[in-house]
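Morning F.,

Quick status update on the modeling queue. The single chain you submitted on Monday has been processed. Sequence for confirmation:
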Amino acid sequence: MIEVRHLNMEFEGDNVLNDINARFDKGLVNMIIGKSGSGKTVLMKCIVGLLTPTSGEIMYDGHNFLALKTKELRRLRRDIGMLFQGSALFDSRTVLENVMFPLDMFSRKNSRERRKRAEFCLERVGLSDAANLYPSEISGGMMKRAAIARAISLNPKYLFCDEPNSGLDPKTSQLIDELIEDITKDFMMTTIVVSHDMNSVINIGDKVVFINEGVKEWEGTKSEVMDADNEKLNDFVFASDLFKKIKEAEDKISEDKKG
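Structure tokens below.
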């Protein structure tokens, strides 16, 4: 579990995050949603340690991330997996070598064991046949899956995904969503996904935190999103005609049952 307490972040005097309080639970896909510039990516970067907040606490299973000593911090970071928006694979390395990179850097296993772990991760994401290919030789969706395999190679307790469906077609996006959900449940990770894709929210968002202009406006489950009594959240969710139609259909069904 990860908990954020009274988190504030300022850039050159501007308050980008304002008194954020939220909890992200183990074994669930926790989604941070909001429009572009809302502060959701800044929040994730603070949680993962890429940015240092102005004030507040970030608790990893009861331990304050911001107060850890160097040795403790290094140990915790080995428990963190990161899926970057652009996949961030090394062009000069094969898919297998990309997945092995964190293992070569941080694992104490021997070469044979590291390779076996990398091959297992590739099999888990359905990329065994692409092990010896280079990133330029595979599709965008395959690159995302390779990046997921790399992110879980060290068997992390915490997985962070920044806009995992960016640039992907709807079918591939769904496959990536399902993969993130499956590995979260299988490995009982605390997964945090930053997204503005409402399809992903409805598909896999066990828990949802809505950020608007640096403020946490709403927190709940995906089943509560459609009926939330929050005007700003509704404006964000129903900006899509598809979700307006879904809401209208649900309201009609509810009225018919009452009638």
